[in-house]
Amino acid sequence: MTYIWFNILTSALKRVIHPTDTQNEMLLSKFSCKDGSILVFGVIVFFILTHYIGVFGSSVLLGVIVARSCWIISSRERNDTIQQFNMVIDRLDRENEHLKSQISQHSYRTNKLQDKMMIQHQRKQLESENKLREEKHLSKQKCDEVERNMEKFITRYEDKKKEVAISLQEQRLQNQKYNNICAELSENLNIAHNERKWIESQLQASISDMQKEQRMYEENEKMYRIRLQKLEAENKSLKEIQKKYEENVIKLQGLQNTVSTTYKELERMKSEKISWTAKSNEIKQTIKDMEKAQLNDFYSKRQVDAIYKLSSAKTDYERLGIRLGATRVDVNTAYKKLSILVHPDKNAAPGSEEAFRILHSAKNTLLKKCC
Mind telling me which residue stretches traverse the membrane in this protein (predicted)? Predict the structure, then answer.
């Protein structure tokens, strides 16, 4: 028994003298310095008495010491817990009072805010009611004005509708008149178109006839040129040729006048729509007269063009038809070609002598430049 108590006390002393971290925390929280000193004093007394008293007495004494120490420790712990509990109650009472004061202040503030909000809400409600009354009054005025305007618009619309119906009726009558006029105009246009086609066909026929007569005239001109060359070989009298030339000029002017009159007559025939058959016979007769009158024509259009070119040219190069920087060979060849067309013995057109003189002078000046 003594051994058992001794082991218990040694283990307790070990825990007191060499505690672990967790045990140290627990001992520090439960035991104070007085408790430790009491426990150590009891252990020392226990060891002293074991030498002088028997085993039974020592065990009883040990039990008494342990019980006393436990009562002391439990009473101290109870006192400590009561003190801590009282401290906690005091702290909770202070916190409760503080919370009550805050709640009272907060309730006072909330009441003030509620009063302000109620006042503001009432003001806003009054303002909104006033605005609604004003808007309602304005909307009623606008509705009345719109209603008056709509009535005016409806009356105007009905008046315009009547006017439009009357104008549509008049427009329909005018459209009928215009349709009738357009139908008549289309018929007249078709008639005029047919007449135009007939006139064009007659004109084409007359033009083809004139072209045939022109071709015949050109063939006769070639024959007359050959005959003229024979006559020039047979008769070298320049005076007779000059007389014939003057006569031919007069005849040519008369023929030109007749040709112009015939074309004018054709235009007049187009406008007046006279009988084309009679006029075509007259045109054929005039063409035959032109052929008869042109039997004595001794010069061609090419010769006349050459005379006009020589008389109207501005420079000697243009008269001979050569470029700047031409050689003597080019000048002589151009002179030979033009002299055949312009020489008075071979060209009976008016102005041939003057043209031949201009050609000769141009040749001489260009040959001097080439040197």
Answer: 38-67
Position 220 in a domain: yes
Q: 247 and 178, same structural domain?
A: yes
| Backbone conformation region of residue 4, classed left if phi is above 0, alpha if psi is from -120 to 50, else beta | alpha
End-to-end CA distance of the chain: 173
123 in a domain, yes or no?
Answer: no
Q: Tell me how far apart the alpha carbons of residues 80 and 88 are, in angstroms, rounded to a whole number.
A: 12
303: containing domain: 299-370
9, two tokens? 């006390």
Contact 319, 313 (CB under 8 A): yes
pLDDT in tens, 232-250: 665 565 566 567 667 766 7
Q: At what angle do helices 301-312 and 352-370 cross, to 10 degrees?
A: 50
Q: Do both 265 and 351 map to the same domain? A: no
pTM of the shown model: 0.24
User: How far apart are alpha carbons 334 and 72 in whole angstroms?
Assistant: 165
Contacts of 361 (CB under 8 A, 6+ apart): none
The structure tokens listed for 294 are: 């042109």
pLDDT digits (tens, 9 = 90+) for 155-167: 887 888 888 888 8
